[in-house]
Amino acid sequence: MAFDIEMIKGVYEGIAERVDKAREVVGRPLTLSEKILYAHLWDGNPENAFVRGKDYVDFAPDRIACQDATAQMALLQFMQAGKAKVAVPTTVHCDHLIQAKMGAAIDLKTANATSSEVFDFLASVSNKYGIGFWKPGAGIIHQVVLENYAFPGGMMIGTDSHTVNAGGLGMLAIGVGGADAVDVMAGMPWELKFPKLIGVKLTGKLSGWTAPKDVILKVAGILTVKGGTGAIIEYFGEGAKAMSCTGKGTICNMGAEVGATTSTFGYDDSMERYLRATGRADVADAANEVKEYLTADEEVYADPEQYFDELIEINLSELRPHLNGPFTPDLATPVGELGDKARENDWPIKVDWGLIGSCTNSSYEDLTRAASIAKQAVDKNIKAKSDFGINPGSEQIRYTAERDGLLKIFEDLDATIFTNACGPCIGQWDRSDLKGEEKNTIVHSFNRNFSKRADGNPNTHAFVGSPEMVAAIAISGRLDFDPVNDSLINENGEEVKLDEPQGIELPPRGFDVEDAGYVEPVADGSGVEVSVSPTSERLEILTPFAPWDGQNITGAKLLIKAFGKCTTDHISMAGPWLRFRGHLDNISNNCLIGAVNAYNKKTNFVKNQLTGEYGGVPDTQREYKAQGIPTVVVGDHNYGEGSSREHAAMEPRHLGVKVVLVKSFARIHETNLKKQGMLGITFANESDYDKIQEDDTFNFIDLTDFAPGKQLTIEVVHADGTKDVIKANHSYNDSQIEWFKEGSALNLIKKQNA
Hints:
Layout: H1 5-26, H2 32-39, E1 56-59, E2 63-67, H3 68-78, E3 90-93, H4 104-114, H5 116-129, E4 132-134, H6 141-148, E5 155-158, E6 172-175, H7 178-185, E7 190-193, E8 196-203, H8 212-223, E9 231-236, H9 238-241, H10 245-253, E10 262-265, H11 269-277, H12 281-289, H13 298-302, E11 310-315, E12 322-324, E13 332-334, H14 338-345, E14 351-356, H15 364-379, E15 387-390, H16 395-403, H17 406-412, E16 416-417, E17 440-444, E18 460-464, H18 467-476, E19 488-489, E20 495-496, E21 518-519, E22 556-561, H19 568-571, H20 584-587, E23 606-607, E24 614-615, H21 617-626, E25 631-635, H22 647-655, E26 657-662, H23 667-675, E27 679-683, E28 697-700, E29 712-717, E30 723-729, H24 734-742, H25 745-753
Parallel strand pairs: 2-3, 2-5, 3-4, 5-6, 8-9, 8-11, 9-10, 14-15, 14-17, 15-16, 17-18, 22-25, 25-26, 26-27
Antiparallel strand pairs: 1-7, 4-21, 12-13, 19-20, 22-28, 23-24, 27-30, 28-29, 29-30
Helix pairs in contact: 1-2, 1-12, 3-5, 3-7, 8-10, 11-12, 15-17, 15-18, 24-25
């Protein structure tokens, strides 16, 4: 029986009435995304039609998932909410704090030793508040969710941007910051601006070297990293139906890289097959009873231009394999064209590592397709020219793959089998083959390839591809290798060619596992003690942020004007910093150290207006805080792109930054800033970004009149005494302005529960 089957049946029991009512209220056929949104309104049956991209709406998600790095701060916040138990089914998954180095057995043992304090904290908090706990080594959160919790037509939120992976099973699964999750854990509504809708019609059928990953690599090239912001991407068409459930998950997973709120597919036979194969026949049976409500109305897919805000059409029969990168996941290049492009841009042609896994591509099917290429190399006496690393998606995947001989194929190619965890994908990689900042190239099947992300080296050129393409490129050792057309020379000096990959959608002998790694919480957690040592370097009980004093912010100094791309990796790096995710003061020492200073093009080197000297961003900001001086961070477009990590909002807030003023925000980061009581605003005139000078002081003229839809006026005073008066836009509604006034959303929750 599936987890939380009664909850799932409850969703299905009410979906027909709610969707029928929504269709009546809206006055037209509905997309799948709209059906799920209207079926999950906090107030029950819909009474109004919402305006896409404008109306803020309260929703009631069915469940929550948290990974260990973000769960720490989320649960530290929830502990202050005054609740005895979480209000909706919630799980914690330990997958981020395991470093890939020697191989699964040694690495997992090391992680359990070095992070025992954090794992014990998460286990005890989970036990106390009725949260399901998945032990280190159990698997990557999104693969585990797909195998155990995702269900068609459901809505979930998760404290990781790639929560969207569950769209492969027909959910609306949305990445959020921890404060959003705390709202839902505490039994409160979750607020979201009603999304716009992007339709992607898939015609034809995938074949040969082209994989589901290539669909989203192509879409990323079309939409760019911000083209999906504020929108749900809904895939449909015969090409979608012909694709496996886990293939759909891969596409949805990387929708985070185009800024999409989430992505999804309509319920179909592949989803039913996957549910039954993963022991959830009861969910499949229940879904079949209401299947017409788990996909769009027929009229929508027949005439999609009438129902979507934007429409993209991709013929899968003509789609070519891609490798995207380096340094950004939307730089899309067909494999056969990459060699010339690399030489033009002086990207290293030699490939040092091929990495397969991550939450994006670590399913059984993914491993079989990559293994079919690896086996050819072994059988044809080809020695891999690059190092190889494999991260299975879950213990169930790993156990089944080992049983079926897949892992041995990789080992015969001298690959290292890492733990069932994120590993290199999120910077948890102790890479032994390089030191310093040597220029090099790697290929991987992950989702992000920002500078420094995998190994901390700003000169590692990372390219994103499908598992089978990563395998082929790693075997060749060359970025310009095109397995569709090129041959290789084996150890006997013979010219050989790799055949097309062959994959198996689901294990013919079924999935198997001895210990999946799940720990069920006790029924009554009131007697469970949760302790945090006051001398801990890893965990720290939170001190509430101070409420707004009701006055205009004046005399604020510029901390940094960030130049170009400034992702959450730049604002709050992962990798070695993950160990401080539960200790706000310690992790704040990485605040904005990756952001490029617009005035000297250096990182972590900004002018201190108090002394005139240059220093690190956190040190400089701590000096401003000690003197009681407010500060402003200025940024470019899509500021806060990437991970859902709320630390990127909490760290500047903790250090005393008052305002983040940018050209545009990524969705999750903007919400995180609001939740933590920060003022996140945008230039009304983008060219005003160029007016900001290094020694500027900011005076807010009318913050005392802060109101929805009302621009803010800022006097920018330059070092020579001249001034510019600029206007800033914001998207705060009445509730979000209350968060600002109270100092944070959590402060408001505590006040309401007092």
